[in-house]
Fold these 3 entries.
Entry 1:
Amino acid sequence: SQTIHQWPATLVQPVGSPLSLECTVEGTSNPNLYWYRQAAGRGLQLLFYSVGIGQISSEVPQNLSASRPQDRQFILSSKKLLLSDSGFYLCALRELARSYEQYFGPGTRLTVT
Amino acid sequence: AQSVAQPEDQVNVAEGNPLTVKCTYSVSGNPYLFWYVQYPNRGLQFLLKYITGDNLVKGSYGFEAEFNKSQTSFHLKKPSALVSDSALYFCAVMTLTGGGNKLTFGTGTQLKVEL
């Protein structure tokens, strides 16, 4: 079965600093990959999704960007963090050979100070 | 635009009693509906889905959900609640988009099961 790794698990960064969050997956090939942000412990907002290497779709214009340099690697970045970037970031995948559900990684807690 | 609504921020139930977490949806076309559970500081875990077929869908950990097209609802149920079921529950609807298949989540319902 598939496994999703996210690191770091927690991160505290000052305003204006850069960001790089990494998501890697195992046990699957050519998955769809997704980045979500969860603010205030509740609502989930889709930020980016990717259907293949180098293919990124952005859902919400913001201070973040995403890249997929390899089939099983999905990176979330920012050049300058804002306070509003704080939240719980979740990576998810959907295996095309299976049904429609997405599977989520353990998440990264980002606090911008 | 497709959406789901979870009208209850919190549901309290005694252990051993049946539980229901409500979800209503708004879609154009056939609905693809999902339930997920989240424990504190963890990622979401998939519970069950409705794509087509029987209106009663069975999932993980003894949960089930009933799809009701006339009421546009997809309520999550369990016959006998456990304290360990206490968590945050999300209903979601899928949008089919040229391969992306995006999920739109409700705002979540906190379930608290008490002894």
Entry 2:
Amino acid sequence: SQQGEEDPQALSIQEGENATMNCSYKTSINNLQWYRQNSGRGLVHLILIRSNEREKHSGRLRVTLDTSKKSSSLLITASRAADTASYFCATVSPNDYKLSFGAGTTVTVRA
Amino acid sequence: DAMVIQNPRYQVTQFGKPVTLSCSQTLNHNVMYWYQQKSSQAPKLLFHYYDKDFNNEADTPDNFQSRRPNTSFCFLDIRSPGLGDAAMYLCATTRQGNEKLFFGSGTQLSVL
């Protein structure tokens, strides 16, 4: 079943601007992961943040996690046209090996 | 180098005609997953294997079955495809269940 809900569903920004998307989830987690998917392709892992971590960085990506609010955010700084893709959050529960995905945010970066 | 390989990239089948999708991995990962993704939707988990231990999601239709003959290979069998089964099928692996997943490029299934 779908665990995460993402907001907004779609985002259109100018190249060079920052893009922020949010993910909320319902039950306790072991970790939360963000993935990227180009149209018609498989998903690519971006970043994993564990339940005891609050913030993580990877290149132009910054992820935050607030377990009290059951929410996470992904920030892409200085966006590029190549960042155009769908971004999904996914959660792993403490009890099993299943990764449950949110509905995703479609990001369009205009050149 | 591709680490999770799905074949074929595109598959067209007829309504009711059995079809098999394949996935192989060179990562020697214990866990393999099959996800179904319909247009503009989240990937939906169908099955996963932890080694040979098979785990079926409660809402996965009986029409879908899976085989994992060895660590490297996993197959998704759709016994009698319906129009509603047209989707992207994604295979993914991970070393252990709470780590990042490595996805294949997917197989886009069309049902005529």
Entry 3:
Amino acid sequence: DVKVTQSSRYLVKRTGEKVFLECVQDMDHENMFWYRQDPGLGLRLIYFSYDVKMKEKGDIPEGYSVSREKKERFSLILESASTNQTSMYLCASMVASRYEQYFGPGTRLTVT
Amino acid sequence: EDQVTQSPEALRLQEGESSSLNCSYTVSGLRGLFWYRQDPGKGPEFLFTLYSAGEEKEKERLKATLTKKESFLHITAPKPEDSATYLCAVQTSWGKLQFGAGTQVVVTP
């Protein structure tokens, strides 16, 4: 079974803080993704990575950056958190041959 | 523009009352259609992948089918534990998924 883990289930941060969200997968997948999910807007892609040190912008990259130093780990960074970044953040890992994405449990981030 | 529309938005079923969820899509070159189940406060759980029209996949009480313009998720004789939001997604370009808004299903005993 594919296992994707995320560093925190719940996180509360203050406006202006730098926030790190970590994601780890145990299946040696090359491809990893970060989404955010908001009521009424569904899941939206922030960034993805198809290899170590490689990254591509998704549909809503503004205000975020990512880091992929090791194959199993993909980090999402909020350089200066703002209240409109309060959301559920979901990481996924992809089976490249079948394009199937497997999601982690999510991090509910609240920025006050 | 690529689009995925799910209907209905919400569905309330009695235990044992079979029904179908719809996912219609407009995408230039379908590379795969995916169904996920999501429980409140959790990440989506992968259910099925469909690649070509006419394809069908089954898992317990769930059956997914695909035509050239839409996919259906049939729930046969549902149980309360089938209550969840069901998400449909299509692959629009390499690795990128376009998600629908989901159908929230509630099954009452």
